[in-house]
Every structure is written in C-alpha cells, then in structure tokens.
Amino acid sequence: MVDAVDVAQTQLDVFHKNFQSLVLATLNERKEPYTSYAPFAYIEGNYYILVSSSAPHYHYIKDNNQASIFLVEDEGKATNPFFRKRLSYYVDFKEVDNEKIKQAFIAKFGNMAEVVLNMDFHTLKVNLKHGKLIIGPGQAYYVDQDQQITAQDRGAKHSRD
After folding, report:
1. What domain range includes position 124?
2. Does residue 82 sit within a domain?
3. Is residue 158 situated within a structural domain?
4. Which of 98, 106, 104, 100 is nearest to 122 (CA)?
5. What CATH number does residue 67 fall under?
6. Sign of CA dihedral 84, 88, 94, 96
7. What mean pLDDT, rounded, does the chain reach?
8. pLDDT digits (tens, 9 = 90+) for 82-95
9. Which residues neighbour 75 within 8 Å (Cβ) at sequence distance 6 or greater?
10. What are the phi and psi torsion angles at 160 (to 5°)?
C-alpha cells in the first residue's frame, strides 16, 4: 500500500511543471511585506528567477535577502477554491551569471527571455530553506531544503473545537 507521504512526494516532484512564474513575498525597507511575481526556470532541481533591477522586489531582495515563494493551483482548474493545491518555501537568493541557465530561460520562454536578458534583468538562484505543500483538506506536508517531504502536518485541523 502506498502511504500518503509517498503520494505527496510524487505530487511535489512535478508540481512546478504547471507554472511559468511564481509569487514572491519580500520585505521592503520598513519590513512591510511586498508581493510580486517573477518568471522562473527549474533547472537540475533548482529554481531560478529573472528579475529586473528596476523592480522594487529586486532591491528588497538585495537589501534583505529573506523572502518566500508561492505556487498555487489555477482557480479555473481547482475543484474547490478553499483547497487549491499550493507550495510555499522560505528562501533566500544568490545572483548567478551562468550561460546554461540563461539558455534554459530562452528554451522555456523564447525570444522574450532573450530580450530581457539583454536588458536590466538579473538571474537569481532561489535557495530553498523549508516549506509546505498542501494538496487538499487535511493534506499538508512539511518540505525540506532538498524538496523532500519530511512529515505530514498533523496539527492542521479544520474544526471549531
């Protein structure tokens, strides 16, 4: 019999394939949350984002290298808006200048990636710390920095007790 953690791990392993961008939550200079998004490429088990140096979130990342990323199931595909599948991680970033990664963005996004890579866009590697995958009611799982399910969140209860 397949256990719930194995099922969750299988879903986690392919979850990123449904997305072209991710939601970023950064902190501004007053430590207020700022939400934005960035296109990403998933390369050899790592997330990379493209960010313009004119975007506020680029400066917030540079000034305070703590953030979170979020991937959430499309509302149009979700069976229930209260329990959309979602994945979040606490992260930090490292700027990289790597031709292989740039080529992966071009392969995924075509000419537009080539255009922005010749502008003020920077490639940042997303360093995962820990996160949570939620695939349904009562189905929340802790995820480590290596993208492995470590445990089911048994504390998540949906009752008024």
Report:
1. 4-152
2. yes
3. no
4. 98
5. 2.30.110.10
6. negative
7. 94
8. 999 999 999 999 99
9. 81, 84
10. -95, 5
For residue 160, being part of any structural domain is answered with: no
39-69 confidence digits (pLDDT tens): 999 999 999 999 999 999 999 999 999 999 9
Q: What percent of the chain has pLDDT over 70?
A: 95
Digit-coded pLDDT (tens) for 87-119: 999 999 999 999 999 999 999 999 999 999 999
Look-up: residue for tokens 């000034």?
63
Instruction: Count up the domains in the chain and report the number.
Output: 1
Structural domain contains residue 42 = yes
The DSSP call for residue 73 is -
Distance CA 84, CA 93 (A): 27
- Residue 117 DSSP SS3: helix
